[in-house]
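Reviewer 2 asked us to include a model.

Predict the structure of this chain.
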Amino acid sequence: MGRLDGKVAIITGAGSGIGRATAMLFAKEGAKVVVVDWAAEGGKKTVKMVQDAGGEATFVKTDVSKAAEVREMIKKTVDKYGKLDVLINDAAITEVEGSTVECTEEAFDKTFAVNVKGVWLCMKYAIPEIIKSGGGAIVNFGSTAATRAHLGIPAYAASKAAVIMMTRVAGAEFASKNIRINCVSPGPTATKMVLDQWPRETIERLKQTTPQGRLSKPEEIAQAVLFLASDESSHIAAEMIIVDGGFTSVKAL
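Predicted model (structure tokens):
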């Protein structure tokens, strides 16, 4: 028996990184997975990976910052699988920002459109369907950037702080409807994007300032998401779990 047998789960941002790792794990645990991403190539690759591993998945191309596309994504999910039990809001962007003064209005607006409005829209249109299913779980993605100052990404850090508070508010609002809404906040994680694009000296410095001495693995973040999406976390609501190898326990960079 899988921990998500019979469940239908939407995972946004599932075309790569933590979202893809979560999709693979959810399918392994018995969920029917709706892979959501704005990039068709990555999303379809995730679906193929899930199917090659014996799981069930389908791809829905969606820009989560657009209400009409989010509504259509929810409709396609329910039309195909008959219900919705779990929503994972992983879709997010990190724009080139610079300091608070250097950050452009365009970068700020784009970051909040995807990272904040996108999470809100997905919850707004998913929650009524999850209620129809008798309840379920929503897991949003915060970041240690929301709890520990990271220089150079003011809009991203603020957007993730907003997600954490939206999680607490929605979690309190809908706990009585048997919907557990929680948040996972990863620390620096060894996704392909990070390993390919971040300066080597930055990655090494982050490793050195993490008590466990390494970056998190996407699969480790996915395990925390699975816990919050499964019945094993039945009495956890409106909370945040940090997965960072102790990164936020030590002094700021």
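The domain at 8-244 is CATH 3.40.50.720 (Rossmann fold). The chain has a mean pLDDT of 95. We have added this to the supplementary material.
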